[in-house]
Amino acid sequence: MTEKSSASRVHAQLRDMAIRFAFKPGERINESALTRALDVSRTPLREALNRLVAEGFLTLRPGQGFFCRALDPQQVAELYQLRTALEVEALRLGLQAEDAALTALGAHLDASEASYAACTDVAELVRMDEAFHLALAGLAGNGELLRMLTNVNERIRYVRMVNLRQLRSGAGEDLSAHRRITEAVLRRDAGAAEAALRGHIERRAEETRALVRLAYSQLYVPD
Amino acid sequence: MTEKSSASRVHAQLRDMAIRFAFKPGERINESALTRALDVSRTPLREALNRLVAEGFLTLRPGQGFFCRALDPQQVAELYQLRTALEVEALRLGLQAEDAALTALGAHLDASEASYAACTDVAELVRMDEAFHLALAGLAGNGELLRMLTNVNERIRYVRMVNLRQLRSGAGEDLSAHRRITEAVLRRDAGAAEAALRGHIERRAEETRALVRLAYSQLYVPD
DNA sequence: GTATCACAATCTGTATACAGCTCTTAATGC
DNA sequence: GCATTAAGAGCTGTATACAGATTGTGATAC
């Protein structure tokens, strides 16, 4: 069953590790240690690392090797703005989709709403949250846009998990945000849909911004 | 003076080649030939190729190697939509910038308008066009957004050159589009600025779409 | 003339080897 | 005790070697 190449397999593994900050922010990545951990030679390992650099998960300092990306408020804020840009434009485009696609989105929400409210696993929660937003953005039928949005999502997934954990433990989560967006979409009300979506993302961005600023010390929880 | 690593140097060279479609769309890339042409071994070459895959310039078919990206109307349309998404949101954010930054954009336009109208070199024309849009997007102060926009620009630069060449030889170029956008920005008129920018990009996208569809056969001009 | 199959050449993907640089550490001088 | 420095280990970046797969070619059968 090990059909795929070592490089792509290692690339997927390393991306998962980078998403969950298995490498600490700013940390240097030891290639020799990784070859032992992942049981590959340095050639495919470095090919995967180079791809992760291009994807924004790592940086490469010449002569010093690969480092994990930083995790500062500025970077997170920028990525949330990027997410807004992509999702809002995708929404505009998606409103041109045919009725069947829109009602499918509504059905998706109806089906997942209950399990979303009942879910206690934060990772699963984020997965469902991302799934809704990706389904919404998918209405645009733009593969490149979806690819970039997926990349942005992966790069902020960690702080998004912390954000949702906080919301669940605290008081403030607004479970009807997705519903309001979806209803505006079903009405093909572009103004209301865009306002709801933009407000939803920016609210989460603001929460996360405060989180990253104030709680940086406990933001990284080692295994 | 050869300070930088082979891999990054080769990466820059290959990106330039990919931008100008020195590799034909869909063409398979012969690594051995490239090692001779660029005078490096396959290891840094393949590291650079892997980064270009992540950047969207190439694709990698398992067991068959690297291929140049396609050049089909759908792909181009998607990238133009992506450009709209990024630039429009950057404009929204940029309107919050301080006066000095806005007037600097106006000065940039004043300074370049004459040479833009007089310029006959299409490559230089595209460079100036991109420079204006990047300066506009730069007002947002979002490095990640600018990075993605730069990548999108590089991937559509070839068709943009063809588009501008056609506009210059024909009748239709609207040289005042940038001016109208800038004036709305200086007035901090968000609605007018967004409408002008969106209309400008979508007009060019539509021209390019027709171009790619109808003139695909002469779109690729080998050296 | 067309399809099938075998063989050879070529290419991809990976492992390994090695040169040069970087960082650490220990020793020395003050 | 502290800064400086020199030696050593470890690491990065690149070249090369090799196994397996793929593609192209030519022969053969029909």
Textual characterization of the structure:
The structure is a homodimer of 223-residue chains. Helix content of chain A is 70%, strand content 4%. Chain A is mainly alpha-helical. In chain A, strands 1-2 form a two-stranded antiparallel sheet. In chain A, a hairpin with a 3-residue loop joins strand 1 and strand 2 (65-68). In chain A, helix 6 (122-138) packs antiparallel against helix 7 and helix 7 crosses helix 9. Chain A is globular and about 55 Å long. The model of chain A is unreliable at 219-223 (pLDDT under 50). The structure holds a DNA duplex (30 and 30 nucleotides).
What's the structural blueprint in terms of helices and strands?
2 copies of one chain form a homodimer.
Chain A: H1 6-19, H2 31-38, H3 42-54, E1 58-61, E2 65-68, H4 73-94, H5 99-118, H6 122-138, H7 143-169, H8 177-186, H9 190-214
Antiparallel strand pairs in A: 1-2
Helix pairs in contact in A: 1-3, 4-6, 4-7, 4-9, 5-6, 5-8, 6-7, 7-9, 8-9
The structure holds a DNA duplex (30 and 30 nucleotides).
